[in-house]
Amino acid sequence: MDNFSTMKDELRNDYNFWREIQSPSQRNCQVGEESTPRSDTHTRRS
């Protein structure tokens, strides 16, 4: 029983890890596009 639960935990961790890898790539695209103009305005202001 313990072995099975730890195996399930590892699988869940792997799945969460995989999802973390997948989602930032999409998020980074949006964040990257948004953040570059913002940093430009920051440099212009200063």
Q: What features would you describe in this structure?
A:
This protein is mainly alpha-helical and 46 residues long. 96% of the residues lie in helices and 0% in strands. The N and C termini lie far apart (61 Å).
Summarize the structure.
Residues 23-46 are annotated as: Disordered. With 46 residues, the protein is mostly helical.
SSE inventory with pairings:
Elements: H1 2-45
Key words describing this protein structure:
single chain, 46 residues
Arithmetic mean of pLDDT:
69
Strand content is under 5%
Radius of gyration, CA atoms, in whole angstroms: 19 Å
Structural class of the secondary structure composition? mainly alpha
Number of helices, counting only DSSP H or I runs of 4 residues or more: 1
Provide the helix percentage.
Answer: over 70%
Using the alpha-carbon principal axes, give the shape.
rod-shaped
Can you summarize the main beta sheet? Answer: none
